[in-house]
Design a protein that fits this description.
The protein is mainly alpha-helical and about 300 residues long. About 75% of the residues lie in helices and about 0% in strands. It has helices spanning about 5-10, 10-50, 50-60, 70-75, 80-110, 120-130, 135-145, 165-175, 180-185, 190-200, 205-220, 225-230, 235-260, 270-305. It has one domain: MetI-like (MetI-like fold), CATH 1.10.3720. The radius of gyration is 26 Å and the shape is flat.
């Protein structure tokens, strides 16, 4: 009796046919999964260009129902949203660059095993992931003692270093062969030169991964703006849109409770939410493909060793 495995091994043509069938099945499964992930995005885009009244009556579809740009007209009806877009872009770009510089300069020493008090410093960083000072002390520190109230710094400095990103980058640096460090030291390089000319160039996967995490966090930030920003010209995009949506909801509730004769069903509420999603995720969708090829490898390598 011939074992099926040995028969498959002795028959290369049959093995190639089996591999082709397996590849086809895997690619088909991945394609179906991609389509399932893409359908909600297409539905959201379609809803953002649909009429509010028709959307509530007929529901969501892959194509716009009673095509209109009323939701986008409402979003871009004022100059303030353009200014808020600039604020969010500035905070995201400048904050990500500054966070990466500080995180890399902190992660590299922690990856060196000869560093004194390495464990204690790592514990202090880890401790902030479990506990914080609370909202009231944090508010007093930022607004009164640091003087960052009503400035863009209040959306950058308090979240400058994320401990999880710090440990991810530290683990990646620890996985780099120590021979690179030793050869550079023999050539007379100091730690700063080793970091900027040797470690960072070979750490592009980890840098791209952590940069993407920081960029998404800065782009979606609105809570600090709600606490510390009073000047409307300094509102980030997410906070401004949240205020607009709340005002629309409040207007509809007041009209229904007061019994106004105005028909509020045509006011773009749901469609505005969909248009908001399209406007806010635009830069992230543009930036993600450039970091995608580094994202998986950086996340896996940085999370294995440590």
């Amino acid at each position: 009796m011939v074992c099926p495995l040995s028969e498959l091994t002795q028959n290369p043509q049959r093995r190639r046919r089996g591999d082709a069938v397996l590849d086809t099945a895997v690619h088909t499964l991945i394609l179906v999964f991609c389509v399932l992930c893409l359908i909600p995005f297409i539905v959201a885009v379609s809803a953002s260009f649909s009429s509010e009244r028709t959307l509530l009556r007929e529901g969501y579809s892959l194509l716009p129902v009673a095509f209109t740009t009323a939701a986008y007209d409402m979003l871009f009806s004022t100059r303030q949203i353009v200014d808020s877009y600039k604020v969010s872009l500035f905070v995201t770009v400048f904050g990500t660059v500054l966070s990466m510089v500080v995180t890399a300069m902190m992660a590299y020493p922690l990856s060196v095993k000869k560093l004194r008090y390495r464990g204690a410093i790592s514990f202090f960083a880890y401790f902030t992931m479990l506990f914080n000072g609370g909202l009231v002390p944090t508010y007093m520190l930022i607004s009164k003692y640091l003087g960052m109230r009503d400035t863009l710094w209040c959306m950058i400095i308090p979240v400058l270093v994320n401990p999880w990103n710090l440990f991810l980058l530290r683990n990646f640096f620890s996985a780099i062969p120590g021979e690179l460090h030793e050869s550079a030291r023999i050539d007379g390089a100091n730690d700063v030169r080793i970091l900027w000319q040797i470690i960072l160039p070979v750490s592009l996967p980890a840098l791209a991964t952590v940069s993407l995490f920081y960029a998404v966090a800065y782009w979606n930030q609105w809570f600090n703006a709600m606490l510390y920003i009073e000047d409307a010209s300094k509102f980030p995009l997410q906070y401004l849109i949240m205020k607009m949506l709340r005002n629309i909801e409040l207007l509809k509730q007041m009209s229904s409770q007061a019994g106004f004769a105005v028909d509020m069903s045509a006011l773009p509420t749901t469609t505005t939410k969909m248009a908001t999603a399209m406007v806010t995720i635009g830069p992230i969708i543009i930036a993600y493909p450039f970091a995608q090829k580094y994202f998986t490898s950086g996340l896996i390598v940085g999370s294995v060793k440590g």
